[in-house]
Amino acid sequence: MVRVREARRAYREFYATCFWSYRPDLEIGLDDVEWVAEALKRNGDLKAWQVASRLSP
Hints:
The chain has helices spanning 2-13, 15-18, 33-43, 46-55. It is an all-alpha fold.
């Protein structure tokens, strides 16, 4: 559940740069962790990339 919590935090933190086309109140679950990590790597900066690497197994 730590990865889910971190993915939720990353979604909120990087919403404006990486997830702006999705609902701001989107509920992130276990199945969404990899999607969040991929979006961070694809759309984010260095800090987002570092967070994504912690989310990926």
